[in-house]
Write a structure and sequence with these properties.
The protein is α/β, with parallel strands linked by helices. The protein is built from 5 helices and 5 strands. Strands 2-1-3-4-5 form a 5-stranded parallel sheet, sandwiched between helices.
Length: 125
């Protein structure tokens, strides 16, 4: 059965890289994408729950941290594993991301490394 990964990022290039990269490495994934935290929440309200969310931290209007908090406030979504995927590379963000989420990956990233980390989170689930 295919696993669904949601990419939440305001950068279209990142979305395309993840979509094509993951699908090229493993046909067992469906990758869906949205460009903002609010669109993520709207999607979750109206669609089947994804198996994992890749969440950017630095987004306009609603940051990844705020999006994360709203997801975790919901009993329906609080068990969705979240990997932070971000250009933010300071120690505070990394420590918070690793503590709150399942993983923290800095951009730019290697797609093979991203896939390995996704597999680890989904296999541990």
């Amino acid at each position: 059965m295919k696993k669904t990964i949601m990419v939440v990022d305001d950068n279209a290039d990142v979305i395309m890289s993840v979509k094509h990269g993951i699908k090229d490495l493993d046909a067992g994934f469906d990758v869906i994408s949205v460009e903002s935290g609010q669109k993520c929440l709207d999607f979750l309200k109206n669609n089947p729950t994804p198996d994992l969310i890749l969440l950017d931290i630095m987004m306009p209007e609603m940051t990844g941290w705020e999006t994360f908090d709203k997801i975790k406030e919901s009993d329906s979504w609080d068990n969705i594993p979240i990997i932070f995927l971000t250009a933010r590379n300071d120690r505070i963000a990394e420590n918070a991301g690793r503590f709150l989420g399942e993983d923290y990956i800095e951009k730019p990233f290697e797609i093979a490394d991203l896939k390995k980390r996704i597999d680890k989170v989904l296999l541990d689930k």
